[in-house]
Amino acid sequence: MSPPPSTKPSSSFNSHSSPTNPADRIRHIAHQMASPVLTTSFPADTVPQAPEDPLFGLAREYRADDSPDKIDLGIGAYRDNNGKPWVLPVVKKADQIIRDDPTLNHEYLPIQGLASFTSRAAELVLGKSSTALAEQRVTSVQTISGTGACHLGALFLAKFYKGNRTVYLSNPTWANHNQILTNVGLQVAQYPYFDKKTKGLDFKGMAQALKDAPEGSVVLLHACAHNPTGVDPTESQWHELAELIRAKKHFPFFDTAYQGFASGDLDSDAGAIRYFVDQGFELVVAQSFAKNFGLYGERAGCFHFVAAPTGDSARETVTRVASQLAILQRSEISNPPIYGARVASTVLNDEKLYAEWKENLQTMSGRVISMRKALRSKLEELGTPGTWNHITDQIGMFSFTGLSETQVQKLKQQYHIYMTKNGRISMAGLNTSNVDYFAKSVDKVVREVQ
């Protein structure tokens, strides 16, 4: 019969007791020295948990919702009348041309990007007959879509601008503007923009704020289809703003993400930028090709610097600025991605494809405009409290509905309708199958929650 197991403690040690055997004690001390308590260099008081991006959080909630009635009005991407992503027919043709090219390779682009793309991008936003282009007062750099263009511009200003280093943003503006600018050390301030009473432009407040801003401030302006309000200055108001900005020696920073997508007219949507350039302003432009080409994930964009018309010294300024932009680009991304630029370049450099692209733009902008008309008509037919003319007065992908945060929350909880809490909706998320349900849901919520 085997003896019972011994209850005598083992001479081996564990981490919770100090051994009495000298040899074990030495091993214990060595073990402690070799296995110190590990701590992070990034504790919570240094790196706190960041909040989830509201827009991407909204998209996550939408995906998790299994209701057949759910509507996504948050995402800023075009959808067809079936609620599906739309690959532009002209983009499909360009893609085929690229894939059939026997010389196709995947080598690095130059630091400044694909020249056949950036040169046509500059013509697109400034106009083929632009005197700035003719006088070689422009330098262009391919970027990671409009976000990358805004970032490169912010970085350039943070390093080299000697005026008032506060950037004035519209209230409200695209939320990422604040993060991009402050992340590179620039200060931001706001100028009034949206009038909650009229649901239109607070031009008087905007103009006064820019008059009161310190001389030489940077003013960020949405060229067309203002995000998030869909409210743009009129042509005469743009002219008045140009006079005011010149008088205060402010520096214009244009962000254009919807050229051709807003009205369907490429020239009209670039009108404000071209007017400022024609007036002799030195300025910068952040240009995106995500919306107007449907190249959302391909991240195709450009950043343009336009020098003031000062003769030979303007070209010398452009040369110096281009050299510094190349250094910033090299340290940030080294070389821009090629596919989206190839697609856009293929279309922009072919007359037939370019003409077809303009037709595609009219298809997208036309459907959005038709949804604006349909929504306004249905709300007015229902007698929904309030006025709804702003739905059709506004332009572009987004509409600032005027719905309160409480009403927005109720639309999500009871009717499975997802929009940003400030009441902004993406008009592209509406279609002939859901616009009636949306209008009736809004009508009920507006009546219930004043």
UniProtKB/TrEMBL annotation:
Catalytic activity: L-aspartate + 2-oxoglutarate = oxaloacetate + L-glutamate
Miscellaneous note of the record: In eukaryotes there are cytoplasmic, mitochondrial and chloroplastic isozymes.
Listed cofactors: pyridoxal 5'-phosphate
Upper taxonomic lineage: Eukaryota, Fungi, Dikarya, Ascomycota, Pezizomycotina
Source organism superkingdom: Eukaryota
A Pfam family per the record: Aminotran_1_2
Transferase in keyword set: yes
CDD domains documented for this protein: AAT_like
EC number(s) reported in the record: 2.6.1.1
Name of this protein: Aspartate aminotransferase
Family the UniProt entry places it in: Belongs to the class-I pyridoxal-phosphate-dependent aminotransferase family.
CC per GO annotation: cytosol
Sequence segments annotated as region (Disordered): 1-25
Keyword Protease annotated: no
Biological source species: Coniella lustricola
Bias kind Low complexity: ranges: 8-22
Aminotransferase class I/classII large domain location: 69-441
Record InterPro entries: Aminotransferase_I/II_large, Asp_trans, NHTrfase_class1_PyrdxlP-BS, PyrdxlP-dep_Trfase, PyrdxlP-dep_Trfase_major, PyrdxlP-dep_Trfase_small
Molecular function terms, GO-annotated: L-aspartate:2-oxoglutarate aminotransferase activity; pyridoxal phosphate binding
Gene3D superfamilies: Aspartate Aminotransferase, domain 1 (3.90.1150.10), Type I PLP-dependent aspartate aminotransferase-like (Major domain) (3.40.640.10)
Subunit structure: Homodimer.
Record key words, sorted: Aminotransferase, Pyridoxal phosphate, Transferase
Enzyme superclass (EC): transferase
GO biological process, one term: aspartate biosynthetic process
